[in-house]
């Protein structure tokens, strides 16, 4: 099956010499949720802007639904909905008229039943006759999402969509996104809430300094780069790790009450059984053990730091 978005060796260099994107290639399947992560200035927004036809690339090609964004831009753009970072709304326009107008821009006829369904799904129906200047920041962001979905796009870009939105509303919005994905809408999001990407995305892409460092299924990424930490709670505190146990990768907590041990879940043998046996042989009594999987945030930070080290080398 042909991917809904095909990005082929896209680059963007500005006249100032700044390289925003450097030879990025990526395919995105229909109906998947892709999270693009990266520090500020990494190139995430530039990539989205190029796909949406807002920025002209220096090199490479992009196709949306098989349509080239430069030579067949009208057909490509009709398949796309964009929720930008900035909240830009006409302050005196009513919510329902704002969404109707956007739908009309794409040449779509009136469909009041769909617009009601859309506004209800975003908890905006009761505010349909309110002027946008009367809304809270979270409400305004929901209006942006409604505008992006007004013409029933096949691809939805969300650039920091939940910034300034409270936790309860954020959950409601992601329930809507899950429903859209189930209906075959492809969703590409950038977010600084890494727990959001970890919870929502099918694949994770990491961009830094204009380069796509990787793009992998979330479970594969967590398995490949994630580690587990074994925390061993001790019956009696230790002042220091016995010499016989040093060099085994164990770290004694500052209070001496616990030991930490990082291990690779993919390894054939984790070494935990031998570790616990060695503790017993050295007269160290264990009260409890627990494990914790590395979070996406920890993996992301390690990837960016490793890339920075390679740049300096």
Automatic annotation (TrEMBL):
GO molecular function: ATP binding; ATP hydrolysis activity
InterPro entries found in the cross-reference section: AAA+_ATPase, ABC_transporter-like_ATP-bd, ABC_transporter-like_CS, ABC_transporter_ATP-binding, P-loop_NTPase
CDD domains per the UniProt record, alphabetical: ABC_DR_subfamily_A (cd03230)
ATP-binding in keyword set: yes
PROSITE patterns: ABC_TRANSPORTER_1, ABC_TRANSPORTER_2
Domain (ABC transporter): residue spans on this chain: 5-234
SUPFAM superfamilies in alphabetical order: P-loop containing nucleoside triphosphate hydrolases
Record's keyword terms, sorted: ATP-binding, Nucleotide-binding, Transport
Pfam entry (one): ABC_tran
Annotated protein name in UniProt: ABC-2 type transport system ATP-binding protein
Native organism: Paracoccus halophilus
